[in-house]
Every structure is written in C-alpha cells, then in structure tokens.
Amino acid sequence: MADSATLLAADPDLAAVIARIGPCTLRGDNGQEPYDALLRAIAGQQLHGAAARKIFGRLCLLGEQENMDGPPPSPARLLSLSEESLRACGLSGSKLLAMRGVAQARLDGTVPTRSEAASMTDEDLIARLVMLRGIGRWTVEMLLMFTLNRPDVMPVDDFGVREGWRRIKGLELPPKPKALKEETARFSPYRSTLAWYCWRVAEEGKKTAPNPLTA
C-alpha cells in the first residue's frame, strides 16, 4: 500500500482524496477459487446484494456440504443437478445455462484453479474467460481484483470508476473508457488501488450502503 499511496499521492487531486478517505482497504484475496467466484458473480448479475446472496446461498445448499455458507456445488455435482432444482434457487434460465457452462469449463480446464491462474497474465485470463456464456470483461476484472489479488486492474467500463474519476478531476462528464484508460496508465502498476478510490469517491454523499463487492 505504501508504494501505491506514494505514486497516487503524487497527483494533487488524488492526494486530497487519500487524505480525506484514508488508507486503501481493498480486499484483494477473498479466498475463493475462480470457479466459485464466477458462479457467485453470475448469481448476482442484475440483482441487489441481499437478493444475490440469498440465491447463491440456496445454490450452496445443493452442494456436497449442504451448507448455505459453504462452497457452491462442485462442477460435476452442479452438472448433475436438475433444471428444476436449480431454478428453485431463483436462477433464471440464462443464469442456469451460464453456470453449467462455467462448471463444464472448470472440468475441461478452461476455468483455472487459483494456482493455475497464478502463472497467467491478466489479459490472458480475460481473453480466456470472456469466451464463456454470461461472463464479460467486467466480471473477470472483478475476479482479478477481489479473488486473485491482482494490483494493476483498471475497470474502465465500470460506471462507478468513471464517475469517481470525474469527481476527482472536476470534469463535466465521466470520461469515455478509452480516455480513462489513457489518463490512468501513469498509475500502473497500482491501478486496482486507484479504482478503489474512484469507487469511494463515487459513493460519497450517498445514503445507500456501499457496493458489498467493491467496498
């Protein structure tokens, strides 16, 4: 954190943000396997946090441990479950298909384990995983930041990051993704920390709770 704070604080606008918000508390390693994290991401698509957690908890009840707070079903177990049992968790047809696709991709090695992912670059992981149904670049970027503890991820398509940067720099409009990528390149290799500060700035003044993933 010290090195990232030094680099970010070299920018006067970011120095003011760091002084106001305090040290970055980014949780870069949530202890999950990529397979588990992708299933959780699919369960939460287009849903608020509480609803997403409830659906994912029901899915975990179908796992080998039959525990709402345990891991989700293993790939083989998930593929053996009936459509009716999966839909009973609250999963839509599209999410059901996406989860089955991720399970099959784990079995055939497309979805790596944590140890396998350690030898892959960010872009290699993105290129491989976005080929899966229901998995976009943003989802893989969140996996990189919050599961695999990658320090240099800048999710330029994320509205909160773009809005935070707009406020930090006093811009009239949020920057386009390409412009944001160019403007923040100088903060490499600590752009994950920068993204975290952008999220915090975007949430300032809001009465709602911060996003449970990016907080």
Automatic annotation (TrEMBL):
Question: Per its UniProt record, what CDD domains does this chain match?
Answer: ENDO3c
- Cite a single GO MF annotation: DNA-7-methylguanine glycosylase activity
Q: What is its EC number?
A: 3.2.2.21
Task: Write out the catalysed reaction.
Answer: Hydrolysis of alkylated DNA, releasing 3-methyladenine, 3-methylguanine, 7-methylguanine and 7-methyladenine
The signal peptide stretch is: none
Major enzyme class: hydrolase
Put simply, this protein is called DNA-3-methyladenine glycosylase II
Taxonomic placement: Bacteria, Pseudomonadati, Pseudomonadota, Alphaproteobacteria, Acetobacterales
